[in-house]
Design goal:
The complex is a heterotetramer, with one copy of chain A (770 residues), two copies of chain B (81 residues) and one copy of chain C (223 residues). By secondary structure, chain A is α+β, with helices and mostly antiparallel strands. Chain A is built from 27 helices and 28 strands. Chain A starts with 6 loop residues before the first helix and ends in an 18-residue tail after the last helix. Chain C is built from five helices and eleven strands. In chain C, α1 crosses α5. The chains are: A alpha+beta (770), B alpha+beta (81), C alpha/beta (223). Bound molecules: adenosine-5'-diphosphate and magnesium ion.
Chain lengths: 770, 81, 223, 81
């Protein structure tokens, strides 16, 4: 016998103790729930409130800060802003694009393959939910030291998981990031981005309207996934069951992804959208049904009833509370008019997708859930989904910040001779952060769907969205955490600027911003200060660049023990190409072209790759933020690319000119003869400074580029001419490309090359391999 | 002399979903084998060991290397056992 | 010329294959795995992807789809059939082509631009090439290592049934660098690399793949 | 009533090389388990069947669907057998 805690029972047993602390609720939060309901919550209600009021779902610590994004001036391109599953922008010709980046950090540490895989799955469903066809993914990855044994455990699994899921869904991976730092040792960051395309009229919103409309749950069956942490509820409700000899299965905290089912879900949804069979739709992600039902109801007219017994289960021992909290993957929830239910179910059948009517939209403003005919939930949905607690957490500037900033890299010993400079050049380029990322990217399909115009290693991913007009989009994802550690306000802006620049060098016009804010514990005032500064910096930066923030994700409590990660705001910028055929690559293809540096170089080494690689140093100030210069550079690049005046363009970021020259040369194996003396007073600054708002371009018409650049107010420095099989820089020993390539490509295979490392981290159940 | 063969079966924990088994089950249904009610798919390792197999060592190998203990269970079959 | 492209649950490169057919001058016709009969088409392409997630073995479940009965029957009487990647795996599982595709030697999924040598320029799908021609098309697979018993491999070589071979590096450990094979009559071809991803300068490493799709148009006319 | 469980082990034919098994063997060597001389990796299926399992049907399922006879062998274990 299972005792079900009904509303009636809750009324009759007001003093029954409830395990709310174990569920993560604070005393005052529990009191508030009792106030809202006018009685104690039932076990199922407690489960719902506890997950929906968690930091992850309620944004209770970050909300007060994120409001600044909503206050940005409204952009003309913005069709749907923050608050929906993902923002939507107009990219012209009747097309709309939706994109968003989300974290799956902790699950990826516990079970790298599945954690990363289900991270991709989750963000793809968010995009699908908007009515769009997902067309590409990106991933931003951060791990502990590259040579740490635990990185050898986590990284291969994460990469295989991102690839395994995305490849099996048929979504090209068009870019991302990979970087290493001690601070991520116990807390890797796995941020995944998905972008989708639709016609304006296909836009779908997550709300439940129209009394009598049906609530349909479709996709995978519901199991005990992701509720391992709250087994307290299982043991409670199953006290009697255990006596009766029924033992509930152990609840896993790990979710296992099924990309095949998700692929079917995508195709079924798109067919359902095209046939106009839904009035509202929501994916099931964190907090599962609790979230989907309360959000749909709350965003709509407010009333919904669900018969929980109808939910198809994979595990019959689940309690009602667990069913409500389950985070089983590959599920969606739709609101369907009664007359369209049969057609809806028929589409699902055609795609072998299980679909079940579990309830209906009701008049009134209550969300009610029954279990075996008894009422176990009766709540105002807004209080669950949208009116959770909001905290104004104390902020305090980190005590060590002044010392950190005072520790200026100017004091570090610098290379002086040509041989030393070349040695440092090779070291930076072949460091784990600077090295060739093919070890990772070749595990990702970048060709599927046949619209990938640029992908890694180019600065931005570029995807064609119309084969006739050649309209397309560009995307870049950047998050330098060293800069953010030194100055989170400037760091967020520098990351924004870098992503913006990356999109601009492809020739695209930057249009909108998404972000994933990875920080430590919000209960730590120093972390909260970093968070507040980063949000303020990003909001101010977006205002200055004239870009809307269309959405994003916050991931807090990223720390090992009580040491927080470096603040890591990962910023995604979306741009539009009116004609993707005009895009330029980042590498040099032909000999005899003139190499030009656009932008100003100052002596800026704080947070630089050089300081980090050569000295293990982090200190000083990050490079100055120069948003007007970034704007001028982007406008110039759009013009140069649009007029066909440049044959390649590559932005400068980590590792400065040293890194950019190496990458441009290695891309197609074309060297150059260069003189850097006009870049800066000394070769060291020329090579390793990380000043922003700079790019290297090649051209066959330097005169016209100069004129255009002068007009745009961007400084042009001629560096030399492409050609040959080496980088020949005046006053430095010649650097043969073969030697450079050997160093650059050897690093990751040497660290992760042996295939054995994946054994054991790829589980039996789930390895799509072809 | 015959080399002792040790078999290790690695199966997903019962509470973990098994898309592979599901796919096989679906195929069996379509092919008319309706009497099969469930399928779970795991891994099957055959190890050849020098000398007498050491149960503790093999158990450790099975649990730490052959299986991912977060989601999988192991069954160790020693020769003659 | 109507070229069918089959969509199985989990097919991914079906849109790409249809695009390649169109760019080659054919008319792509989408076919659905669950249908009983093959429509009136002049040739069939089995595209890449992860049919049924490839959870059991790549291509194993798709090979038993209803439509495959009719594909097998018509292929046996000369209908040109091209299997790309997962499609190749399906053709092997369905017994239309010899051998099997197994887990890559290095155990990773690998996507790269791959050089190939066209060994046979007289199959229904390779007539537009010249024998010995070097082409570059993408490979992307995790179970692309071609295996067969040594005697079977010898026989394939003797009969000249290796259609394309990896050169300048073998991406997955395929025996004898085999990238694609053909049926005895040269009408059925399977290969792991993806010619449909090399049909436009804008999106591929080359346009070397287009020849597969133009070849069949001629082959059908000639037949 | 207990549902009969049928186990099917699928192993690569001896002449087919097994990179997964090789990788495990390599890892074992590095971890100091030198006494393991070879490792082969296969698949392990657990089927639950309604009623009395029909050996012929299961043998057919095993040989034609669960394994690819070109490269794999199967071992069928019926309950109580
Ligand atoms: N850092 C952020 N910047 C802007 N918007 C954010 C950020 N974090 C979250 N959001 C927005 O808040 C809303 C809720 O986020 P989330 O709960 O992660 O959505 P979902 O559950 O659909 O993934 C979304 O609209 C999301 O875009
Ligand atoms: Mg969502």
């Amino acid at each position: 016998m299972i005792t079900v805690d009904t509303v009636e029972r809750a009324v009759g047993t007001p003093d029954e103790p409830q395990p709310y602390t174990e569920l993560g609720l604070k005393d005052d939060e529990y009191v508030r729930i009792r106030d809202i309901l006018g009685r104690r919550p039932t076990t199922a209600e407690l489960a719902m409130y506890s997950v929906m009021w968690s930091e992850h779902c309620s944004y209770k610590s970050s909300k007060v800060h994120l409001r600044q994004f909503g206050d940005l001036p409204r952009s003309e391109a913005l069709l749907v802003g923050i608050g929906e599953n993902a923002g939507v922008v107009d990219v012209g010709d009747g097309y709309a694009v939706t994109f968003k980046v989300e974290s799956h950090n902790h699950p990826s540490y516990v079970e790298p393959y599945q954690g990363a895989a289900t991270g991709v799955g989750g963000i793809v469903r968010d995009i699908l939910t908007m009515g769009a066809r997902p067309v590409a993914v990106m991933d931003s990855l951060r791990f502990g030291r590259a040579d740490a044994p635990d990185t050898a455990r986590v990284l291969p699994g994460v990469v295989a998981g991102v690839g395994g899921y995305g490849n099996c869904l048929g979504l090209p991976n068009i870019g991302g990031e990979l970087s290493f730092d001690e601070c991520y040792a116990g807390n890797p960051l796995v941020n995944a981005l998905c972008v989708g395309v639709m016609r304006h009229e296909d836009l779908r919103l997550a709300k439940a309207e129209g009394a009598g409309n049906r609530v349909v749950l479709f996709g995978a069956r519901t199991g005990g996934d992701g509720i391992g942490g709250v087994s307290v509820l299982a043991s409670e409700t199953f006290a009697d069951a255990a006596e009766a000899g029924l033992s509930p299965a152990k609840r896993p905290s790990v979710q296992v992804g099924d990309p095949f089912t998700e692929k079917l879900l995508i195709e079924a949804c798109l067919e359902i959208f095209a046939a106009g069979l839904v009035t509202g739709i929501q994916d099931l992600g964190g907090a599962g049904l609790s979230c989907a039902t309360s959000e749909l109801a709350s965003a709509g007219t407010g009333g919904m009833h669900v018969d929980l017994d109808r939910v198809p289960l994979r595990d019959s021992t689940l309690t009602p509370a667990e069913i409500l909290m389950s985070e089983s993957q590959e599920r969606m929830c739709a609101i369907v008019e009664p007359g369209k239910v049969d057609d809806f179910l028929a589409v699902c059948r055609r795609w072998d997708v299980q679909a079940t009517v579990i309830g209906e939209v009701t008049d009134g403003d209550r969300l009610t859930v029954d279990w075996h005919g008894e009422r176990i939930v009766d709540v105002p949905p807004r209080t669950v989904a949208h009116e959770g607690p909001v905290y104004e957490r104390p902020v305090q500037r980190p005590a060590d910040l002044d010392d950190l900033r005072a520790d200026d890299p100017a004091a570090l010993p610098r290379p002086t001779t040509g041989a030393e400079l070349t040695a440092h050049w090779l070291a930076v380029v072949s460091s784990p952060d600077g090295a060739d990322k093919t070890w990772v990217t070749e595990q990702y399909d970048r060709y599927v769907r046949g619209n990938t115009v640029l992908a890694q290693p180019d600065d931005a991913g570029v995807v064609r969205i119309d084969e006739d007009t050649h309209r397309g989009i560009a995307l870049a994802l950047d998050g330098n955490a060293r800069y953010a550690r030194l100055d989170p306000y400037a760091g967020a802006q520098l990351n924004l600027a870098e992503a913006y620049r990356n999109v601009a060098v492809s020739g695209a016009r930057p249009l909108a911003v998404t972000n994933c804010l990875n920080f430590g514990s919000p209960e730590e005032p120093a972390v909260m200060w970093q968070f507040a500064e980063a949000v303020r910096g990003l909001a101010d930066g977006c205002r200055e660049l004239g870009l809307p923030v269309t959405g994003g994700n916050v991931s807090l409590y990223n720390q090992t023990g009580d040491v927080a990660i470096n603040p890591t705001p990962v910023i995604g910028v979306l741009g539009v190409h009116d004609d993707v055929r005009r895009r330029v690559p980042s590498g040099w293809r032909a000999a005899g072209e003139t190499v030009l540096l656009l932008g100003e170089t100052r002596a800026e080494f704080g947070g630089s790759a050089w300081a980090s690689v050569m000295h293990g140093h982090l200190g000083g100030r990050p490079p100055a933020v120069a948003l007007p210069a970034e704007k001028a550079l982007a406008a110039l690049l759009a013009g140069l690319v649009g007029e066909g005046l440049v044959t390649s363009a590559h932005d400068l970021s980590d590792g400065g000119l040293a890194q950019a020259l190496a990458e441009s040369a290695l891309r197609y194996g074309t060297g150059a003869a260069l003189d850097l003396s006009a870049v800066a007073g000394d070769a060291f600054t020329a090579l390793f400074s990380e000043s922003g708002a700079r790019a290297v371009v090649t051209t066959t018409d330097p005169g016209s580029v100069r004129v255009t650049a002068d007009w745009a107010g961007v400084r042009v420095t001629e560096l030399g001419t492409t050609g040959g099989d080496a980088l020949r820089v005046a006053d430095l020993p010649e650097l043969p490309l073969a030697e450079l390539r050997a160093a650059w490509t050897a690093t990751l295979p040497a660290l992760f090359g042996s295939p054995e490392v994946t054994v054991g981290s790829v589980p039996a159940g789930t390895v799509p391999t072809s | 002399m015959r080399v002792p063969r040790v078999v290790v079966d690695v199966v997903l924990k019962p509470e973990i979903s098994d898309p592979q088994g599901q796919a096989v089950l679906g195929a069996l249904g379509r092919l008319g084998h309706g009497s099969v009610r469930s399928v779970r798919q795991g891994k099957h390792f055959v190890l050849e060991v020098d000398g007498t197999p050491d149960r503790d060592e093999l158990q450790q190998i099975a649990e730490t290397l052959l299986a991912n203990p977060v989601i999988e269970d192991v069954e160790l079959h020693l020769p003659g056992a | 010329m109507r070229i069918g492209v089959i969509t199985f649950p989990g097919s991914l490169d079906d849109v790409d294959a249809a695009r390649a057919v169109r760019l080659a001058g054919g008319e792509p016709v989408s076919l659905w795995h669950a249908d009983d009969h093959l429509e009136d088409v002049d040739a069939v392409v089995l595209p890449g992807g992860f049919s049924y997630g490839d959870y059991l073995r790549a291509g194993a479940i798709a090979a038993r789809a209803p439509l495959m009965h009719s594909v097998v029957a018509k292929a046996r009487s000369g209908l040109p059939v091209l299997g790309i990647c997962n499609g190749f795996q399906v053709l092997c599982e369905a017994g239309l082509l010899p051998g099997a595709l197994t887990r890559n030697g290095h155990l990773h999924f690998r996507n790269r631009d791959q050089a190939l040598r066209v060994e046979r320029a007289d199959t229904a799908w390779t007539g537009s090439y010249t024998a010995g021609q070097r082409i570059v098309v993408p490979v992307k697979n995790g179970e692309g290592r071609y295996v067969a018993a040594p005697a079977d491999l010898d026989r394939l070589e003797e009969e000249g049934r290796v259609v394309v071979r990896y050169v300048e590096g073998n991406p997955n450990g395929s025996l004898r660098d085999i990238a694609g094979v053909t049926s005895a009559d040269g009408r059925i071809v399977g290969l792991m690399p993806h010619p449909e991803h090399a049909v436009e300068d804008l999106t591929g490493p080359s346009t070397d793949g287009l020849g597969f799709f133009t070849s069949v148009l001629t082959a059908v006319v000639a037949a």
